[in-house]
Amino acid sequence: MISKAGKDKGRWYVIIGFDLEKERVLVCDGEKRKLEKPKLKNPIHLQFTNYYLREIRDKILSGQRIFNEEIRNAIRRLVGEEEVCK
User: Fold this and answer.
1) Beta-bridge mates of residue 15
2) Overall pTM > 0.90
3) Which domain holds residue 37?
């Protein structure tokens, strides 16, 4: 997903969790916003894409540990593919 509002406008993120009480999603990019301190973002300020990172999703669902480097690399691969498609 891509941030469409705020100082981080245009930055790609991965959803890693939800805060249902505040109606926010927890996002990180593995670089500026790391897993240890994810950003709490209003879903209205996010542009959802048709992409999902299967390897990250599977690890989250199975309770395995994910690393910032994995998220960074997955986003770089995805953004690279997106730019080629334009």
Assistant:
1) 27
2) no
3) 2-85
